[in-house]
């Protein structure tokens, strides 16, 4: 099984780090090309390679870790997904520029982000339209990337919520999550689990649970 990561920012590198720690091989990409990731892959060791977005997108499981505004542009034009698994890590938010003027109407301003209005739709439904033929599993989106570590400092395993509509895809992703050392919890179908664990304002978003 091959794994690709599209996006090498806070979340993409956080995911690559947990793959590297578990010895799971993956190809990671960003917008600037593999050479710009030389330092990262040297730091992470042999299991993580730098590649182009197209190379990462060819994997059996493709982790999409780009900003919501970039999703359509980055993954919309990639070759056919043909039943491969795409992990949607996104939350529909805009990242605020540092020093942006105060906005009392933005309940997430303290976090440096602003919700994007999807007209009542949930984000994975919109995301799925960009990857026709893929089997989408929502994962890695409910925790701050800085806290993405399988072992809790107080003992036990960090819980990762996931959801999706394809039982086999979910079973493969669950096995991967277990290999990484996290404790997976299945939140059900994409239109149930997605809204539960997504910003804004899923009740499980930003919930860092520990399985003792
Ligand atoms: N940060 C978190 O704590 C967190 C937690 C949960 C979920 N998420 C979600 O994860 C996603 C990524 O967030 P982030 O914080 O990691 O954002 P980020 O730090 O801004 O990283 C975005 C990455 O996307 C890359 N990218 C843009 N165009 C690309 C292309 N054509 N091909 C490949 N990569 C491309 C950028 O490449 P360059 O580096 O070359 O610019 C950058 O590495 C968002 O949807 C966010 O909502 C983030």
TrEMBL record:
User: Keyword Cell membrane on this protein?
Assistant: no
Q: Where is the signal peptide?
A: none
> What protein name is recorded for this chain?
NADP oxidoreductase, coenzyme F420-dependent protein
Show where the Pyrroline-5-carboxylate reductase catalytic N-terminal domain sits.
Answer: 2-92
Organism for this UniProt entry: Sphingobium chlorophenolicum
One Pfam family this sequence matches: F420_oxidored
Query: Can the keyword Oxidoreductase be found in this entry's annotation?
Result: yes
Which positions, given as ranges, span the membrane? none
Keyword list (alphabetical) reads: Oxidoreductase
List GO molecular-function terms, semicolon-separated.
oxidoreductase activity
**InterPro entries xrefs:** NAD(P)-bd_dom_sf, P5C_Rdtase_cat_N, STEAP_metalloreductase
Q: Which Gene3D superfamilies match?
A: NAD(P)-binding Rossmann-like Domain
């Amino acid at each position: 099984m091959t794994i690709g990561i599209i996006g090498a920012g806070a979340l993409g590198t956080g995911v690559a780090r947990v793959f590297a720690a578990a010895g799971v091989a993956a190809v990671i990409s960003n917008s600037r090309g593999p050479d710009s990731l030389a330092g990262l892959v040297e730091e992470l060791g042999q299991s993580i390679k730098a590649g182009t977005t197209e190379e990462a997108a060819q994997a059996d499981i493709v982790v999409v870790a780009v900003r919501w505004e970039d999703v359509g542009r980055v993954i919309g034009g990639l070759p056919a997904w043909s039943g491969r698994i795409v992990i949607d890590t996104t939350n529909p938010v805009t990242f605020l520029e540092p020093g942006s003027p105060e906005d009392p109407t933005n309940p997430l301003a303290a976090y440096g982000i602003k919700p994007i209005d999807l007209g009542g739709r949930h984000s994975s439904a919109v995301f799925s339209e960009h990857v026709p033929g893929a089997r989408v599993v929502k994962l890695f989106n409910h925790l701050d990337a800085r806290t993405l570590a399988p072992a809790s400092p107080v003992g036990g395993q960090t819980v990762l919520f996931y959801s999706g509509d394809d039982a086999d895809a979910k079973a493969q992703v669950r096995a991967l999550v277990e290999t990484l050392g996290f404790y997976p919890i299945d939140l059900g179908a994409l239109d149930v689990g997605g809204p539960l664990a997504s910003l804004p304002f899923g009740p499980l978003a930003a919930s860092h649970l520990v399985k003792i």
